[in-house]
Amino acid sequence: MAAPSKPPKSTTKRRGACHQRFVRRSLGYCVLVHWADSAARPGWNDVDQSGPAIIASVGILMRYTEAAIVLAMGISTSGRCHEQITIPRGCITHVEQLSPTPVEPNDV
Fold it and tell me: How many whole angstroms separate alpha carbon 106 and alpha carbon 108?
């Protein structure tokens, strides 16, 4: 029988140096990111009381800057990324590392 796996690493509403170190250590790993996105309604409406939309995105953490993180849905052996999303750091409410090792494409 296999030993139970460790729970995924995560950070919730962490800010500052601790959060930055966690995210930097997760570069190249598959991560789950919860973040707040703006919401819009077309036309004339009553004032929307729902607030921002909470989004869950899963991808490979490719880049981390003071302003944002970049997730990619796929990476190639040549280092190119497919379907990237840039998420402003101020919008991020939760980051969870999903893969136990960095994601690397294999030569077939």
Answer: 6
What's the CATH code of the domain at 73?
Answer: 2.30.30
Residue 63: inside a domain = yes
pLDDT 10s per residue in the chain (108 long)? 444 444 445 554 445 566 666 676 788 999 999 999 988 878 888 887 778 889 999 999 999 998 999 999 998 888 888 999 999 999 999 999 999 988 887 754
Domain membership of residue 69 (yes or no) is yes
CB atoms < 10 A from the CB of 61, how many?
A: 24
